[in-house]
Amino acid sequence: MPETAQNVDPRRWKALIFIALAQLMVVLDATIVNIALPSAQDALDISDGNKQWVITAYALAFGGLLLFGGRLADLWGRKQTFIVGLIGFAAASALGGAALNSPMLMGARALQGIFGALLAPSALSLLAVTFTDAKERAKAFGIFGAIAGGGGAVGLILGGVLTEYMNWRWTFFVNIPFAIIAAVGAISVIREPAESRNPAKLDIPGVLLATLGLVSLVYAFTRAESDGWTAGITLSLFVAAVVLLAAFAVVESRVKAPLLPLRVVTNRNRGGVYLALGLAVIGMFGLFLFLTYYMQMVKGYSPVKSGLSFLPMIVGMITGSTQIGTRLMTRVPARMLMGPGFLVAAVGMLLLTQIDLDTSYPLLILPGFLLLGLGMGTAFMPAMSLSTFGIEPRDAGVASAMVNTSQQVGGAIGTALLNTIATSAGEKYGKAHAATAQSPDLLRLQSQVHGYTTAIWWAVGILVVAAAIALTFVNAGRQDGSSAASGSGEGAAEDAIPVMAH
Questions:
Q1: What gap in Å lies between CA 162 and CA 33, rounded to an integer?
Q2: What is the C-alpha to C-alpha distance for residues 465 and 11, in angstroms, rounded to an integer?
Q3: N or C terminus of the chain: which is more exposed, having fewer CB within 10 Å?
Q4: What is the tens place of the pLDDT at every residue in 180-192?
Q5: Backbone angles phi, psi at 164, to 5 degrees
């Protein structure tokens, strides 16, 4: 039943503003530094071999500690963890902006990842326990889903503006006002239900195994990008990740208070959401990387113009999330938004496989971006909501962490996998056409574009697989609110999600 008036937090919509602001800060930070990296590299004399660590240090800390951060949110309280994460993220950003050398910058990025791992799951779980009425939940998650999907593209735009008109340090300093406003707002208006905490003892073996396993997995994909998929270090890291995560699953099935209760991921709806989102992010983040280089290196766009070229994708994401997903989430099953949404995004990606040296932005890239954004926004919104819908309050933090983990691991895989595919395809094209090339510079550009389009074809296929998983695994009905209240036990939580439409 919907909540009665006296149980509804009157400040919940104000709370959403600050939760969404914090989420935007975390998501855009994943891409804003990419645009600024060449300038930072020159300023701090970072070698080509070490520049990847500016990105990797953040990804390793963030991806490796997300489950731990989600469990801490359940244990300490989401509001407290949220505020600590904001303050720590602001301090780490200040350190990065003031960096005097490469170790200082990389250390700051690792600290950003650590506090981001506290912040991201606590933000989503606060949303889950604050909005339980179906229609309000749809609106709240529509806004949150648009930010989660579009924040990466916003980071490209903001990074371009700050780098071109100010300097690279402001891509770090810009987080400070975001964090201060969100923290002050959180202290003032966020109210967390006291009964939603999980006071169970912390699962230390689970923390160690999960953290080491996820760090090994993310780092393996990073090394695959730089050293190759068959390099000894790459294979060793993949083997270590498999062994550690398998041991983690065994431990979690036996301990009394697991870090990740298996009921969270073995539910077919949540498991389907985590897998589909992870795959979709593989394609999306790979595309951000390629088209950023395409706009600047091939089309000759400035950093600002390159960033602004992604604006239609953001518009599409906001429209898909707030106008399509929000309006239909309580009327149709989630899979009927996620599956078609990923397929529409795949069509947009399909258009982008046709780019060449003189592609028209208005005629091809613009409609491709619009379709990609519209599809992703439509799919992300119900996926974000379903990932915590019907979950027991004591598991909300770790369930939210799993959403972020699937996206973070997906982003690491996407960047490494698709970049490796693009580089290999580009090299083969260059060798095959070397004898007939008009000029070395022209051949280099043609090879780059061929590599990009080859990788984008793979991204199209990955999005189709994500759609198939959403349509087959996710069998929940409308999120109409009758199951949003938590159950009283494991079985209740499992049965709470499917609410079939009549």
A1: 10
A2: 40
A3: C
A4: 999 999 999 888 7
A5: -80, -40
Q: Give the Cα separation of 460 and 347 in Å (integer).
A: 8
300, burial (CB in 10 Å: exposed 0-12, middle 13-18, buried 19+)? exposed
Both tokens assigned to 447: 């090879």
What's the pLDDT tens digit per position in 28-37? 777 788 777 7
- Count CB atoms within 10 A of the CB of residue 25: 29
The pTM of the full predicted model, rounded to 2 decimals, is 0.78
Report yes or no: 262 and 210 within 8 Å, Cβ to Cβ.
no
Q: In the 8-state DSSP scheme, what is residue 365?
A: I
How far apart are alpha carbons 394 and 20 in whole angstroms?
Answer: 22
Q: Are 162 and 38 spatial neighbours (Cβ–Cβ below 8 Å)?
A: no
The upper half-sphere exposure of residue 342, i.e. CA atoms within 13 Å in the direction of its Cβ, equals: 31
* CA–CA–CA angle 302, 424, 356 (5° rounding): 45
Alpha-carbon dihedral sign for residues 55, 61, 65, 70: negative
**DSSP string covering 30-90, please?**
HHHHHHHHHHHHHHHT--TTTTHHHHHHHHHHHHHHHHHHHHHHHHH-HHHHHHHHHHHHH
Instruction: Give which of 35, 182, 171, 18 is closest to 109, Cα–Cα.
Output: 171
Provide the H-helix boundaries in 166-231.
Answer: 170-173, 175-189, 204-227
Q: Is 71 exposed, middle or buried (0-12, 13-18, 19+ CB in 10 A)?
A: buried
